[in-house]
Design brief:
By secondary structure, the chain is α/β, with parallel strands linked by helices. It has six helices and eleven strands. Bound molecules: zinc ion.
Length: 237
Amino acid sequence: MELSVVWDGQKIPVQIIYSGRRRSWAIEVKTTGEVFIRVPSSVPEQKVMEIAQSKAKWIAKQQEKFQVRAAEPRRYENGNMIPFFGDDLIIERRAGPARAEISGGRLCLSVPDSFVPDEAEKLVRDMVMLLYRRAGPSVLDPFVEKYAGLAGVQKPLLRMRLQERKWGSCTPKNGIIINAKVLLAPKPVAEYLVVHEIAHLRFRHHQKTYWDEVERLMPEYRESERMIKEDGWRWVF
Ligand SMILES: [Zn+2]
């Protein structure tokens, strides 16, 4: 049976996740709108749903926030700014053969005149995404080098990908994959994602031993975690 809470006449589906090790409650609303209620396994379902219902207003608000926030596309107009690995680049856009390049604090974009506006916007966005993906491995290389050394693992091969919701992952063969969107985030976030995946090369789970290792590698990692949760929606191409 699907569980749900009701707010403003609308049913909001929720999922309960029981854990034997848990002592406290947590309600989490994902950017996808999914709602997870994490509770100790000793709590009866009816009680869980009573408390969830008492938080229905908060849950609805969180969902609304993510929906509103997901909707603003970036505008690649002359003079606008775009972040790149902690710096702000000024966008310089002109007519010309399709090209995107970073040079001297500027993101230089040229788009053929023959493109209709919709096509031109799509081309610009695609070019910028490709540029960031290609730039990623060399920009992040010092972090990969540093933290592989600290973690005592062989330096992994870093690849950049573009993913809707996933920030990173690691492969069975000593590779790590990081979302190119992270170059739109502050530097410590990019650093943390490298740390997060490198720590997974030894601990392929999210248990306490894993988080202890993350903390050892980057003691201030929680601040970056918080930024991803609160501001991650802003970092879009
Ligand atoms: Zn992880």
